[in-house]
């Protein structure tokens, strides 16, 4: 007679129980893992939304500050250049007579032409859409050309075009920051040479502005009123995913490096 080869029940039962328990454990573990992963993803997405909201808020604040500074620049430009040319033109017309008619008329015509040119250049510098249409490099080149026309300072522009690395909002904010840096150089540095270099690196776009002026003590700058402008510039850089580094010393010129990371890589899910 054939004997059964099946293991006795009391031997197979523990194996079945252990296997079932292990299977149940893995099912529960997988379920809990999926729940936890889902919750983490929800939290991560909320964090991303919060970062977007914070970024938009700080960017708007930065744009308003830049707009206020821009209005001050407009006022100064109109007063110093356009207003002066128009005042001289009016003075020439008031003193015109038969003897000097042709000379005064020619001078007045030149002054009015200068005022129109200055106004056109000012419009190009202030128009955000024009800046993005030109591109950052061309906009900076235009600004440096205006400086050389206005004062006896040599300028140079070195490097790559950064439009592939920066979006339009970043380009506008960076350009306004560069305008502020150039304005500060002309006011305080007593420089004879200004150099602007553009460079794309693996992680960031670098904009470096150097001058050969008198430099300054950075610690004293941060303590004074001018330090507020520095802090505002650093905040603007942070608002567009960047940073500002200043290297300077008395009688050794100044180097300002603006490093901006592309916004495209800032928020990922």
Automatic annotation (TrEMBL):
The name this protein goes by in its record: Sensor histidine kinase
Keywords from the named record: Kinase, Membrane, Transferase, Transmembrane, Transmembrane helix, Two-component regulatory system
Every Histidine kinase domain range: 73-264
Gene Ontology CC: membrane
Gene source species: Filimonas effusa
Membrane-spanning segments: 12-35
Gene Ontology MF annotations: phosphorelay sensor kinase activity; protein dimerization activity
């Amino acid at each position: 007679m054939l004997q059964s080869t099946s293991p006795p029940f009391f031997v197979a039962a523990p194996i079945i129980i252990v296997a079932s328990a292990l299977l149940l454990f893995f099912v529960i573990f997988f379920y809990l893992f999926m729940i936890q992963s889902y919750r983490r993803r929800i939290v991560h997405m909320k964090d991303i939304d919060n970062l977007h909201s914070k970024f938009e808020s700080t960017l708007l604040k930065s744009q308003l500050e830049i707009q206020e500074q821009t209005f001050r620049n407009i006022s100064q430009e109109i007063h110093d250049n356009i207003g002066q040319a128009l005042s001289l033109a009016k003075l020439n017309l008031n003193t015109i007579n038969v003897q000097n008619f042709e000379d005064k008329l020619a001078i007045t015509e030149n002054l009015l032409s200068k005022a129109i040119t200055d106004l056109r250049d000012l419009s190009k510098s202030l128009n955000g859409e024009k800046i993005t249409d030109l591109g950052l490099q061309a906009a900076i080149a235009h600004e440096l050309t205006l400086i050389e026309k206005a004062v006896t300072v040599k300028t140079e522009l070195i490097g790559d075009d950064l439009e592939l690395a920066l979006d339009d909002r970043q380009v506008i904010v960076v350009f306004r920051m560069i305008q502020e840096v150039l304005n500060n150089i002309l006011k305080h540095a007593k420089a004879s040479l200004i150099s602007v270099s553009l460079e794309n690196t693996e992680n960031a776009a670098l904009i470096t502005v150097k001058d050969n002026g008198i430099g300054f003590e950075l610690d004293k700058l941060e303590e004074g009123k001018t330090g507020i402008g520095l802090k505002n510039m650093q905040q603007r850089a942070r608002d567009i995913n960047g940073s500002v580094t200043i290297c300077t010393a008395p009688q050794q010129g100044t180097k300002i490096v603006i490093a901006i990371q592309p916004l495209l890589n800032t928020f990922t899910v």
